[in-house]
Amino acid sequence: MAPLNGVKLEVGQCLSRELTDTKVACICEVLLRENNILKLEQFLQSLPVDWPFLSTSENHGEPSPAEQSILKAVCFVAFENSNYVTVLHILRHIQFSTWHQPLLQQLWYQTHYAQTERRRGKKLGAVDKYRLRRRHPLPRTIWDGEETVYCFKQSVRHILQQYFLENKYPNPEEKFTLAKATGLSCTQARIRQCTKKYTKRKNIQGSQVTTIALMRRKAVRAYSDPASTYE
User: Fold this and answer.
1) By its UniProt entry, which InterPro entries does this protein fall under (predicted)?
2) Cβ count near 43 (within 10 Å)
């Protein structure tokens, strides 16, 4: 596996007796949440670790939750140091749980964008990024295989659609229950509800405008040519 700033980052259990894998994972999550990549890199490099299965190209199944958090931190440190090979290697061959996947999916695309920009020597446009996403689909290690349309999975969209057909104005408690059933936050569920109402209202207004325009056209035609009224 490629070294990161001269330090070989492999996967395994922390050999320090003072810091367990769980404690190391908590520190990594906090530093990632603060977006303090420099301190995160210094912290990872100070750890005596021995995780040999990253050095192979085989898929070794899903690591423990603590190992996943540490591996996610390794990915972001590697990305910050332009070590894109390491990032893609981890994301392709290590299975991550659903909780980590949204962030790692963004990292997957950002890594391919950065690789291509460095190779071409210029910034990518929206069309270039779209083509890269089509060319490099998400691996199953960070994706459950379900298609996403406008940031919502098909199964979630179906649940929301069926629910709002029965109850257009859910109260806060019902929104909380719906969010728990779909895995969304209450804010996401509320935004989806507002978007659905707006789209429906816009479609109704659009059809009304079309009807009014046709009526006006017929009125103008009848005024200019009275005989056409009887056609």
Assistant:
1) HD, Homeodomain-like_sf, SIX1_SD
2) 17
Residue indicated by tokens 């003072």: 18
- The CA distance from 85 to 98, in Å, is 23
Residue 41 DSSP SS3: helix
CA gap 178, 170 in Å, rounded: 9
Least reliable range by pLDDT among 22-26, 113-117, 168-172: 168-172
Handedness of CA 49, 53, 56, 60 (dihedral sign): negative
Give me the residues paired with residue 149 across strands. Answer: 152
Q: Above 90 in pLDDT, residue 165?
A: no
Q: Where are the domains of the chain?
A: 21-135, 146-200
pLDDT in tens, 8-17: 444 444 444 4
Say if residue 99's pLDDT is above 50.
yes
Is 146-200 in CATH node 1.10.10.60? Answer: yes
Strands (E), 18-150: 49-50, 148-149
Confidence band for 180, pLDDT divided at 50, 70 and 90: confident
CA dihedral 149, 152, 156, 158 (to 10 degrees): -40
Residue 218: CB partners within 8 Å, gap ≥ 6? Answer: none
Q: Residue 222 carries which side chain, given as an amino acid letter?
A: A
pLDDT at 224: 57
Classify residue 139 by its DSSP letter: P
Pick from 63, 76, 67, 70: nearest CA to 104? 76
Is the pLDDT at 91 greater than 50? The verdict is yes
Q: What is the pLDDT of residue 21?
A: 82
